[in-house]
Amino acid sequence: MLTKRIIPCLDVTEGRVVKGTRFIDIKDAGDPVELAAYYDQQGADELVFYDITASSMGKRPLLEVVKRTAERVFIPLTVGGGVRDLADMHDLLAIGADKISVNTAAVKNPELINQGAERFGSQCIVLSVDCLRRTKTDGSIWWEVVINGGRTPTGINVLDWVVEGVQRGAGELVLNSIDYDGTHYGYDNLLNREVAARTAVPVIASGGAGKLEHLREAILLGRADAVLAASIFHHGTYSIMDVKRYLAEAGIPVRLDIYGHTKQGGER
Question: Is 130 noted as a catalytic residue in this protein?
């Protein structure tokens, strides 16, 4: 089993980190630059930074906040929200982002994925998908792609869209479950597993972490390559090292420091 990544998520609006439930009931969670630096020091493997209102409000990415964040962290930084063209991608990469996450703009213009992959490489292009469970008349489940920060349904099947996105050049997938987001009920492992079975790029599970068991299940049951979480870290329920020690004890490989121990003294 390859090493699994633990990724705190910073959902940002108006320059502040926020967290809600199912994309609503948004509450302030702190300063993005300070939180990013804290998670870097605590042993996070990567960081994801989303401007969650940029696309719906027609705004460009928060370049100044991203720049200050990139200056404080030394781990890979993925940035999304408001990215509409190659110029936006270039500007973000130039100020310190390592990967660019596309969502709404990619649905509206799928060629953006091709263009980004051709210009900057697939390793820099992350396709983020906001997913909403639906039930057909026969009782079977499917997932719909929703854009504009969870506000606009598209009628597009998530499973079809992720396959197309990877074919177009996306090097990684983030699956944001709207149904599970902020609920602390666990990840949508059925969704994650269905996507993992259809694609050959890393899948990042997002939405629903409440207990340590949920992160383990996302990896073992959902076949996720990485787990993304927000509120359990922002609210201090668990630290990055709490998660890593738990996963290591469950036999799941996680990144260790140069001395062969987790940064807070966990055993190999």
Answer: yes
